[in-house]
Design a protein that fits this description.
Layout (H helix, E strand, L loop, with lengths): L1 E7 L3 E2 L7 E3 L5 E4 L9 E2 L2 E6 L6 E5 L6 E7 L7
Antiparallel strand pairs: 1-6, 2-5, 3-4, 4-8, 6-7, 7-8
């Protein structure tokens, strides 16, 4: 797995669960797509987005969690070119 982004989770991490939404420190919003369920509780946790090169699948890994979960992009911040 290759790390494609590292940052922080905005707000509280209440564990993994299908359909949970995660807002990241770059203002992107991701939704958990797989059924992994893992309890947890952290404020402003460090997170990494991972991929297997060429797969097009993105995974979220939260510090302290034992699993990584497949996520889909819901919202990406608009950045100006100027």
């Amino acid at each position: 797995m290759e790390t494609i982004w590292t940052g922080r989770l905005i707000g509280t991490f209440c564990g993994y669960g299908r359909g949970r939404v995660y807002k990241l420190s770059d203002d992107s919003v991701w939704v958990q797509e797989d059924a992994i369920d893992e309890p947890g509780y952290l404020e402003g946790a460090e997170v990494r987005l991972l991929t297997r090169r060429g797969s097009g699948i993105i995974f979220l890994l939260v510090e302290g969690a034992t699993a990584r979960v497949r996520v889909g992009l819901v919202e990406s911040p608009m950045r100006s070119a100027g």
